[in-house]
Every structure is written in C-alpha cells, then in structure tokens.
Design a protein that fits this description.
By secondary structure, the chain is an alpha/beta fold. 49% of the residues lie in helices and 18% in strands. Bound molecules: beta-D-glucopyranose.
C-alpha cells in the first residue's frame, strides 16, 4: 500500500529527530495509538496535509460528478424573435386588457415574435398617442392599438404606415385611417344585443340609466347608438339618464349612486364598458337593491360572472378580448411575411345570463386549457 508506506516513512525517525528522540521532551514527542510508535510534530503536519489533500480531491471529484449529472436545466437557446411588435392598450392594468395581452403573448410565442405591451395607467388619449409616436420612432416592426377616436389617432396611424410600419386596430376601429386591418367586436351590434337583452329581461318596460365608458371613444358611441336603436322597438323603455365613467369602476359606482338618487323610479341600469357593471353591482348590493334593478353589463370578467351567479347582474354582453390579442398578432405576422390580410375580423359577441353561465364557464375552461381564443 503506497500510502501506508509513505506514512511509515514519515513516522520513521530521521537522523535529526533520532537525536531529538534521544533527548525526549514532553513537548516534542507525541505517542500515537498504543503501538508504541513515536511521531514528531513535523510528521504529524505532513500526515494532516496528506489527509486534507485526499479530502479536497474527494470533494472536487464528487462535485465534478454531481455537475456532470446535474439535473438542473441549462439555459435553452431560443431562436431570436423575428419581429418586434408593440401592443398599446387603453389601460395597462385593466383586467379586460390583460386578457387581450394574454392572447397576444400566446400568438407571439407561436410565431416567434417579441411582443411589448404598453399603455397609460389610466385611460388618456394624449398619452396613448404619444406611446404610438414612440413606437414609430423606435422603428418597431408592427403596431397593434385601440383607436379611440379617429380624429386623435388618424395622424399617428397614417404616419406609421408611411414609415412602412403596419398598424392593426383592435377593440375600437378607425376605418378612415391607413390601418391595415381591424380585429374586434362589431360595437354597434354589441349595443343592439345589450338593448335586446334589456327588453327580454324587463318584458319591454323599464326606466333606464346608462353608464358608458366614454362619450368620446368610438366603441362606446357605437354601443350606445346600437342600444338606443334596439330599445326604440320597445315603447315601454325610457332612457332617463346617460353618464360617463371614464371606464373607471369607482366613477361607475359614483354615477350609479347619483342616478338612483336623482331617479328613484329607476328600474334598470346598463354599463357599456367592462368595469361599469361591477361599479353598478357594488352600489345595488350596498343599497339592498340587488335583484330588484335589472342590470345589463359588458364583458365576462370573473367578478361579473360572480355577480351574475348571485343575481345582481342580469345579463352581460360577452366580447372576445383574448381572441382580439391572439388574432391580431397572427394577422400582423402574416402581413410582415408578405401574406394577404383581411381588413375586417369581427370577433364574437353574445349575451350571457345565469341560465347559460355553467355552459359558458365550461367552454372558457376548455379554451384556456388549449391556450386558444
Ligand atoms: C371595452 C374596452 C375598454 C374596457 C374598459 C371594454 O368593454 O371594449 O374598450 O377598454 O371595456 O374596461
């Protein structure tokens, strides 16, 4: 055994320590074990050094082995995204726009594009247009945006196209601009559906207050127009107040509160943007009016569904925000690849009530499993 031999060599008295061992002192001579073998301090240090070396070598060997079979995944090298797309939402933190974002991100993954989502914290046309300008200045490959008003958005959308950047509008269209395509609801039709739902729920007799997301935004204008046109067919329906929430849930609640005070005979409330119905429902619950006032809302946010289940919201017009994000990215990438793109893609809108809630939830969970609109 070479190691043993080496140790024996180290422990064998040298000429120098033979002299020392002839004049032993308590301090210089140590007895190791009971074998009567004497070892001086130098030899002991050498032995310790050897043991340490063996230990360090073992640890290194072990580490190399562990690293070799390391189950931790190394960074996967993905191909660089082919296109940089910017999506500009009406409000960044709004749950409706988060659904749009989820759809856009899913499509971007499928098409190997990089999607950057921007938007004002609170709806603000000026800031929205500024973000569009910044996207153009940074020469992105394509832009997806809501076009709240044709007047404010046409110059910047047209500028993008002149610089060779295709623009797809979603949710709210600006057909007179140079946008490449629109993906979203037929907002007029969605308004008609809300009116029809109200007629159905009230038997054509109601005193109504409407809370709209905005008096300026084209989608809201179209929905209100559709709603008014639909209820014209029911002479028993009277619209006595229309107010704006600026798409804010808090303002919607405030407006609902005020309407109920100003019009104690109100029997129905309609909210035309995603958070309006939630503000209305909150106020009705607080005032003990839940279930006694008909409520027609927009969109199928989780809270809206919960209020439908409880009977606070009577019906809602479901839109397809996920599909808007998903399809708009696919179309934009098609266009960037030189493929033809249809100018109009209307996503589905339909009425949801408590009767169809279970069906709707089942369909929605199947869709999210498949990561599809
Ligand atoms: C509208 C969006 C709006 C959102 C606000 C939706 O119903 O389609 O344009 O931004 O409500 O919460």
């Amino acid at each position: 055994m070479p190691v043993l031999n080496f140790i024996m060599k180290l422990t064998k008295p040298t000429a120098q320590n033979r002299t020392a061992s002839s004049r032993p002192t308590v301090n210089t001579v140590h007895r190791i074990g009971g074998g009567g073998m004497a070892m001086d301090r130098k030899a002991l240090w050498a032995l310790c050094a050897l043991v340490s070396c063996v230990a360090v070598a073992g640890v290194i060997a072990l580490a190399v082995g562990v690293l070799r079979d390391d189950p931790v995944p190394r960074a996967t090298v993905l191909p660089a995204p082919r296109f940089h797309i910017v999506l500009i939402a009406q409000e960044r933190g709004n749950p409706y726009w988060q659904k749009v974002q989820a759809g856009a991100e899913a499509a971007a993954r499928e098409r190997n594009a990089f999607i950057e989502v921007r938007g004002p914290v609170q709806t603000d046309i000026e800031e929205h247009v500024k973000l569009l300008d910044m996207a153009i200045a940074s020469r992105v490959d394509g832009i997806i945006t809501q076009a709240l008003t044709e007047k404010a958005f046409a110059p910047v959308i047209n500028k993008a196209r002149e610089k060779g950047i295709p623009v797809i509008t979603i949710d709210t269209d600006a057909p007179a601009t140079k946008r490449l395509a629109y993906v979203g609801s037929d907002n007029y039709r969605a308004g008609v559906q809300a009116g029809q739902a109200l007629i159905r729920a009230t038997g054509g007799k109601a005193t109504v207050g409407v809370i709209t997301g905005s008096f300026e935004a084209e989608n809201m204008i179209q929905r209100l127009k559709g709603f008014r046109d639909a209820v014209k067919h029911a002479p028993g329906i009277r619209v006595v107040a229309v107010e704006s929430s600026n798409i804010s849930r808090i303002y919607a609640a405030e407006r609902a509160e005020r309407m109920l005070k100003d019009h104690p005979d109100l029997t129905a409330l309609v909210g035309t943007s995603a958070l309006d119905g939630l503000g209305i429902a909150e106020v009705l619950e607080k005032r003990g009016l839940a279930g006694r006032v008909t409520v027609i809302a927009f969109d199928d946010l989780a809270e809206t569904l919960a209020y439908i289940e409880k009977g606070v919201i009577t019906a809602t017009v479901v839109q397809a925000p996920y599909a808007m994000g998903y399809r708009s990215v696919h179309l934009l990438v098609d266009a960037l690849e030189g493929k033809p793109v249809p100018p109009l893609t209307y996503t589905d809108t339909y009425i949801l009530t408590r009767d169809t809630l279970a069906l709707h939830r089942a369909a929605a969970s199947r869709e999210s499993e498949a990561d599809r609109p």
